[in-house]
Amino acid sequence: MAKSSATKDALALFQSLRSAYAATPTNLKIIDLYVVFAIFTALIQVVYMALVGSFPFNSFLSGVLSCIGTAVLAVCLRIQVNKENKEFKDLPPERAFADFVLCNLVLHLVIMNFLG
Amino acid sequence: MNSQVPLPITRMAKVLEFLVLILSVLICGEAVIFKPISDSHRSAALELFNPTHGSSLEETYEALRTFEVLGIEKQPDLRAATCASVVDTLSSPSALKDLFQALRVNGLLNCELKKKTFAGIAPRLKDAVKSASSLLDYYYSVGSLVLIKGLSSDVDVHLESADSVFRAIKALSQSDGRWRYSSNNPESSTYAAGIALESLAGVISLASSEIDQSLISMVKNDISKLLDDLEKYDDGAYYFDEKLVDAHGHQGPLSASSAVVRGITAFAAVSAENLNLPGEKILGLARFLLGVGVPGNAKDLYYQIEALASLENNRVSIPLILSLPTSVLSLTRKDQLKVNVNTILGAAAPSLTIKLRQIFSSGSKDASVIDQDLKFDHKNAVHYLDALPKDIDVGSYIFTFEIVLHDSEHKMIYATGGRTKVPIYVTGVIKVDNAEISVLDSDLGNVETRKKLDLAGENSISLSANHLQKLRLLFQLTSPLGHALKPHQAFLKLRHESKVEHIFVVGNSGIQFEIILDFLGLVEKFFYLSGRYDIQLTVGDAVMENSFFQPLGSVELDLPEPPEKASRPPPQAVDPSLRFGPKAEIAHIFRAPEKKPPTNLSYAFLALVLLPFIGFLVGLLRLGVNLKNFPTSSAPATSAILFHLAIAAVLSLYLLFWLKLNLFTTLKALGFLGVFLLFVGHRTLSHLASTSAKLKSA
């Protein structure tokens, strides 16, 4: 019984999380989706490395860091765009997006140099 | 390390070469054989001179003149082209030097020229003679006039003011008999003296009236002063040294001597007076010119041949050259001593007798006086001696010959140069006999074993000895006349199995050669190495026709055990072919390539990596993303499109950077793209910001 109640609780928690998340603005959802996409791509590369070996290690590193880096930048963007963050109230989202683009370009210049 | 080893060896070889050179010079001393001009000069001339259409008239003249003197057929195909060039030069107002060269070539080729050509040139040349200021101007203009005079008798080439021209040229002479090129050049040159004499000879032949005798005797005086400056070699060759180094081509002893010889002979040909030139010096000059051998370049060959040709036909004294077909005579074959006498160009000499005066033996200073006449073989034009003097044995000698002309008139014409010394090598078969090798007891000297040797044939004796015994080798060398001969080399060589070698010099007393090896005293030298030793005997000499280098057999040596401190045999010299041969090949080791995963797996993961991206796109669709916020009015739309394009451009630049560009080109391009991106990005985003602000306020 206790087990089923625990499952129920977990389901209830999940339900409430989902309903709470449904209220999130679409543009934040897009960013979340992007972060998930980047993380999954990185994960697949890690799995590949585990299967095959880390021979062109720089290539592996640049591939994974590219994904992780862009995910982190996307999280930063999400923080700045979120309207509930009062800290960034004065910062227009366009400015945040410009930062995101610039950082991504710099990040990928380094990544390309490291790719070999 | 190894690369430094050959250096001392080559240096040593050079030193040896030098020593041999010095020795040969010392041995030959003043006795050198000069050979007259022969076929080797002809083949050299054909090789060196290659007059083609491109070569200048001067080169063509030198080639043709050399061919003419050497009696080589002219190439007919050359004539047409050269004549065209000659006509071209003569009919156009060319420089004095070119005119002179063209006339010289014409003199050899006899090109068909119009008579008017000469008539047109002659006055120009006469003006040039009058206005000439340098020696070369005189040389070219006077020389040209002389050439015209020889070709056509119709043209008036006579110089009215010959005396003054003569004086003008003479004014350039120096007190030592040499000449200056021009009055404002203080340097005097021997080559210039030759040219000046040739010009003066030309002036004399062109003079319309007799030249003042006092002028000619002054020049005669100059010539004798010039001849006083002659330098002498030990072998009786005389030459003029050219001290002046200047811009007039390459001038050395050969060109200077050649020019003076040509000048003196030309002057002697036209002056009525007897120049009283010493025959010895004329002969010495001929010897110098012949002693050059076959020169290596065309210019030198021309100088040599031209000077020899003018000596051959000169009026003063014609040098006769004594030469030997071979200077090595074999006593065993009973070779005859043969002597040729020719003029320098190889023509036959007048009737004469050669006397053998003296014979110097190379070893001793004293000479045996022979005074024997050589017989003359009319068929082969060769003087020969029936048999060598009785007391001539093998060895090297210096024979002294003297040429005696039959006709007393010839004595005025020909220069024979007194006695001529010639090195002669007499060789022969040396008799080798009474050869034996034996093993002796050390204390008493009793003979243990004795083996006869036949040094002319093969030997393979085998002996055995211990350290208390001696090895004795005996043989006799007798020259054809029964005298003792001390050969340059008489060596006995013992060679151990381990290739350690010991060489001993075999001494002699008279005809008997003997060497005794006392093994007791030699054990140390032999490094206490017992075992088989091969025996080799070398006897050799330059005059010995049957020099030999023979294995005699072997001796089995039984030597005591080495004590503690005995020296080890030296390491044997490495075979030079091993030392300088190819080195072992170097095998390069490369890092083995990393093992690569199967391609299918890599492709599968490529597809797998694309899955999240597809998931991202599907997710976007589910979220209902749209582009409604994209600006619609034209200007912001353009900048928005440009913004996206610029981002795409930067990303493709990164792709190119990965594929082929280097960091510097990439950064340069990125600089420009970045500024553009900043500009359009700013416009787009500020437009978006303003629209969203309007929305809020609305």
Q: What do these coordinates show?
A:
The complex is a heterodimer of chains A (116) and B (698). Chain A has 116 residues and is mainly α. Helices cover 83% and strands 0% of the residues of chain A. Chain A is flat, with a radius of gyration of 19 Å. The model of chain A has no long low-confidence stretch (mean pLDDT 90). Chain B has 4 domains: 162 residues, Distorted Sandwich (Coagulation Factor XIII, Chain A, domain 1); 282 residues, Glycosyltransferase (Alpha/alpha barrel); 107 residues, Immunoglobulin-like (Sandwich), CATH 2.60.40.1080; 55 residues. Chain B has 19 helices and 24 strands. In chain B, strands 10-11-7-5-13 form a 5-stranded mixed sheet. Chain B has a 5-stranded mixed sheet with strand order 6-14-12-8-9, with no helix packed on it. A 5-stranded antiparallel sheet of chain B has the order 16-15-18-22-21. The longest helix of chain B is centred in the C-terminal third of the chain and has 35 residues. The chains are: A mainly alpha (116), B alpha+beta (698). At the A-B interface, helix 2 and helix 4 of A face helix 17, helix 18 and helix 19 of B.
C-alpha termini separation of chain B? 93 Å
What is the SS-derived class of chain A? mainly alpha
| Total strand segments of chain B | 24
Low-confidence segments of chain B, given as residue ranges, are: 1-10, 19-29
Mean pLDDT score of chain A, rounded?
Answer: 90
Structure annotation, total helices of chain B: 19
Query: Number of DSSP helices of chain A?
Result: 4
